[in-house]
Every structure is written in structure tokens, then in C-alpha cells.
């Protein structure tokens, strides 16, 4: 194969992966009751919304710097006041939650609640506060747990149960239950459903539905 074709394929590979991901997302959302056009629209809206954060809270807190000792002097730094903005990510929180509410109309309640509790517990256990970044969470774990719980608890409605429990469980376990730790992240802005959580939320819609 000529070298130019190999170079062309290397350049084309990211585009092919993106197209494959769109097709997988379309198929998975179709299993949740959407038409192919609406699936692509929801996929695109989530991607665009991932860069949009809506501020919902501004908090000021006092930061006490540690004293430093350089013999024979003691250096003292006065407390500083910092402001932290808490926002909600459109693509990683608002859109998935609204779609979950839509799915709840035709999804069994008890299996959904139990599956959500399971995903919440797993997300809370695995979520790690990362100073300067936010809450980090392994992206593939919530979708896998959500899909497994949905299949076991509601085989006939596994796809919507997996999606709802994956979305709500990840947001509650990773972000909402870690709200008290936000002030320790030393970050000016914290996004619920953003940063390290968006990957998990977004993949829930694809992986959970495919596995279910």
C-alpha cells in the first residue's frame, strides 16, 4: 500500500471512530424509544451541552494558609476569601435528567429505584475528588453496573431502567453526595455533571442501552 494511503487512513481514523460512535448512540437511543432522527438530535445536543454550564450557586469561604517556619523566622499568611461557583452542566446533567423523566412514564418504578440505589452506591464509592479539577469517576463502571442491575431486576424493560438508573445514580452518587467536599477542591468553578462525570453520564446512554 502506498505511503500516502497509510497516512490518509491515519488521518481518517478519528473521523471513522466518531461516525461509529454516532451510529452506536443512534442504535442505543432507538432502543429507548426514539426515532433515528431524534436519537441523533439528542446525541448532538448532549455534545453541545457539554460545554455549557449554568451557575446555580456562589459561595465564599475562607482559606487558611499554613504557617511556614524558616529559622529563626515564622512567616504567617493572613486568611484569604475565595469564591466558588457551582454550576449544572447542560449535556451531562440537565438533558439526561429530562430524558430520564420522560422514560419514567413507561418504566417500572420499583426496579428503577433499586437499580438507581445500586448505581448510586457504586458511584459514591468510586468517585474521587481531584483538587483543581472536580469529581473523577471511572467512565465505564456506572454504565456496566446500571446495565447489569437492569437486566437482573427488569429484564423486559432493561434499556430504560439501565439508562435512568445510570444517569440518576451517577449524578447522585458522584456529584450530589460529594457536595460537602466541593470546597476542598480548590477550584473556582465546579460543574455538576461536568468534568470527570460527563464521560460516565454520556456513556450511560450508549453502553447501558446497548448492553441491556
Automatic annotation (TrEMBL):
A Pfam family it matches: DUF1614
Alphabetized UniProt keyword annotations: Membrane, Transmembrane, Transmembrane helix
Highest taxon listed in the record's lineage: Bacteria
Membrane spanning stretches: 40-56, 85-103, 109-127, 134-153, 159-177, 189-211
Protein name per Swiss-Prot or TrEMBL: Uncharacterized membrane protein
